[in-house]
């Protein structure tokens, strides 16, 4: 185990068999060693900083039927909402006053928000806040659409690949297709977005071999950001009887990702924080370096229920995270927090 972990630290690469060996055999002693190497790598790239993003969930309408997701189209118990331009701008203005410099606008795949609508919105946001980094997380669209939204001023795009195993992908995403998902990620990169991929831990049929495929897919794609979170079953979805994804395994996968992609921005996800009281601390100590706090208006927050008991931490709770970060030797950084390879940002 030591040889493989040392090799990973040195080369930032492992083959499939080596990754499977780690996942099959790691114990608490080697976990501590893995996390230490992941932290050393993080200190070398971004230092002891945790970047903070304001997350605005602006619509829970979705045309898809992902079998794990609480806001899937066929869940008729969802109280659907869409925020107007005015509501979106007002949420951003409040968070900007709190010092936030990066915003993530997330929604289901909602075609109500046409390219023209979003282009206007993005331009208006960028006119008001020229210095901020704007991220979209709105699912799959055409190359042309991604290109228009980029030209309008969007900096980043989050689109998790969910699983790199095409059979599992196609089974859990009716009417969607792995090749299209993968194609969208390469489109986003080609256009120039800081692109985020990532996967869910604990999906049905997901073995360590499949997780190794996820990590190798990430290594090949080289995304700027990687979100990894445990599955949290939602009672109104076909996966209601599935077990919760393992937080321990999620944290190991965060550490392996840090070592495979030293320059990736890796959030400690809301899902991990929801099922694990010390998710934030454990995730950061394993190489995670981003936290997303919620800036959606209170009156819609509970309605964006992708899984049960979603632990939405409010943007105003920043001080709590400052203290929690300090306790483990980190500081919360409110700057844009770009990936090191973007904006000529080699000296971030
Ligand atoms: N529609 C956009 C997309 O497809 O990228 C963004 C919104 S989607 C709700 C955001 C993420 O939530 C997904 O990428 C998925 O990984 C995660 N998610 C949905 N349901 C989940 C669940 N039950 N447990 C854990 N993560 C979940």
TrEMBL record:
<feature type="binding site">
    <location>
        <position position="162"/>
    </location>
    <ligand>
        <name>S-adenosyl-L-methionine</name>
    </ligand>
</feature>
<feature type="binding site">
    <location>
        <position position="66"/>
    </location>
    <ligand>
        <name>[4Fe-4S] cluster</name>
    </ligand>
</feature>
<feature type="binding site">
    <location>
        <position position="181"/>
    </location>
    <ligand>
        <name>S-adenosyl-L-methionine</name>
    </ligand>
</feature>
<protein>
    <submittedName>
        <fullName>[FeFe] hydrogenase H-cluster radical SAM maturase HydE</fullName>
    </submittedName>
</protein>
<keyword id="KW-0411">Iron-sulfur</keyword>
<dbReference type="InterPro" id="IPR013785">
    <property type="entry name" value="Aldolase_TIM"/>
</dbReference>
<keyword id="KW-0949">S-adenosyl-L-methionine</keyword>
<dbReference type="InterPro" id="IPR034422">
    <property type="entry name" value="HydE/PylB-like"/>
</dbReference>
<dbReference type="GO" id="GO:0051539">
    <property type="term" value="F:4 iron, 4 sulfur cluster binding"/>
</dbReference>
<feature type="domain" description="Radical SAM core">
    <location>
        <begin position="48"/>
        <end position="269"/>
    </location>
</feature>
<feature type="binding site">
    <location>
        <position position="69"/>
    </location>
    <ligand>
        <name>[4Fe-4S] cluster</name>
    </ligand>
</feature>
<dbReference type="InterPro" id="IPR024021">
    <property type="entry name" value="FeFe-hyd_HydE_rSAM"/>
</dbReference>
<feature type="binding site">
    <location>
        <position position="137"/>
    </location>
    <ligand>
        <name>(3R)-3-methyl-D-ornithine</name>
    </ligand>
</feature>
<keyword id="KW-0479">Metal-binding</keyword>
<dbReference type="Pfam" id="PF04055">
    <property type="entry name" value="Radical_SAM"/>
</dbReference>
<dbReference type="GO" id="GO:0042364">
    <property type="term" value="P:water-soluble vitamin biosynthetic process"/>
</dbReference>
<keyword id="KW-0408">Iron</keyword>
<dbReference type="InterPro" id="IPR058240">
    <property type="entry name" value="rSAM_sf"/>
</dbReference>
<dbReference type="InterPro" id="IPR007197">
    <property type="entry name" value="rSAM"/>
</dbReference>
<dbReference type="InterPro" id="IPR006638">
    <property type="entry name" value="Elp3/MiaA/NifB-like_rSAM"/>
</dbReference>
<keyword id="KW-0004">4Fe-4S</keyword>
<dbReference type="GO" id="GO:0016740">
    <property type="term" value="F:transferase activity"/>
</dbReference>
<dbReference type="InterPro" id="IPR010722">
    <property type="entry name" value="BATS_dom"/>
</dbReference>
<feature type="binding site">
    <location>
        <position position="62"/>
    </location>
    <ligand>
        <name>[4Fe-4S] cluster</name>
    </ligand>
</feature>
<dbReference type="GO" id="GO:0044272">
    <property type="term" value="P:sulfur compound biosynthetic process"/>
</dbReference>
<dbReference type="GO" id="GO:0046872">
    <property type="term" value="F:metal ion binding"/>
</dbReference>
């Amino acid at each position: 185990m030591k040889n493989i972990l040392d090799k990973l630290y040195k080369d930032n690469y492992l083959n499939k068999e080596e990754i499977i060996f780690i996942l099959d055999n790691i114990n608490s002693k080697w976990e501590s060693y893995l996390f230490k190497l992941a932290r050393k790598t993080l200190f070398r790239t971004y230092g002891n900083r945790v970047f903070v993003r304001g997350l605005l969930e602006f619509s829970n309408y979705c045309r898809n039927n992902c079998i794990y997701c609480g806001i899937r189209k066929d869940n008729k118990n969802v109280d659907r909402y869409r925020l107007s331009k005015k509501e979106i701008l007002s949420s951003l203005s409040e968070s900007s006053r709190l010092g936030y410099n990066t915003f993530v606008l997330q929604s289901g795949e909602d075609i109500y928000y046409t390219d023209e609508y979003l282009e206007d919105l993005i331009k208006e946001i960028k006119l008001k806040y020229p210095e901020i980094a704007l991220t979209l997380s709105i699912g799959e669209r055409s190359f042309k659409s991604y290109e228009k939204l980029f030209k309008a001023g969007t900096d980043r795009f989050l689109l998790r690949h969910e699983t790199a195993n095409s059979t599992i992908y196609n089974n859990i995403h009716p009417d969607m297709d792995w090749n299209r998902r993968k194609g969208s990620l390469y489109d986003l990169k080609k256009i120039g977005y800081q692109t985020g991929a990532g996967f869910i831990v604990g999906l049905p049929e997901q073995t360590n071999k499949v997780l190794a495929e996820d990590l190798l897919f990430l290594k090949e794609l080289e995304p700027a950001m990687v979100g990894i979170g445990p599955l949290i079953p939602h009672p109104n979805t076909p996966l209601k009887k599935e077990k919760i994804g393992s937080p321990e395994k999620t944290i190991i996968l965060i550490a392996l990702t840090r070592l495979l992609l030293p320059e990736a921005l890796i959030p400690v996800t809301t899902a991990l924080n929801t099922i694990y009281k010390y998710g934030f601390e454990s995730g950061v100590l394993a190489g995670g370096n981003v936290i997303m706090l919620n800036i959606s208006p209170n009156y819609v927050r509970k309605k964006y229920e992708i899984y049960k008991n979603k632990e939405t931490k409010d943007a105003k709770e920043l001080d709590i995270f400052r203290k929690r970060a300090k306790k483990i030797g980190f500081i919360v950084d409110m700057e844009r927090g770009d990936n090191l390879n973007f904006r000529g940002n080699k000296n971030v």
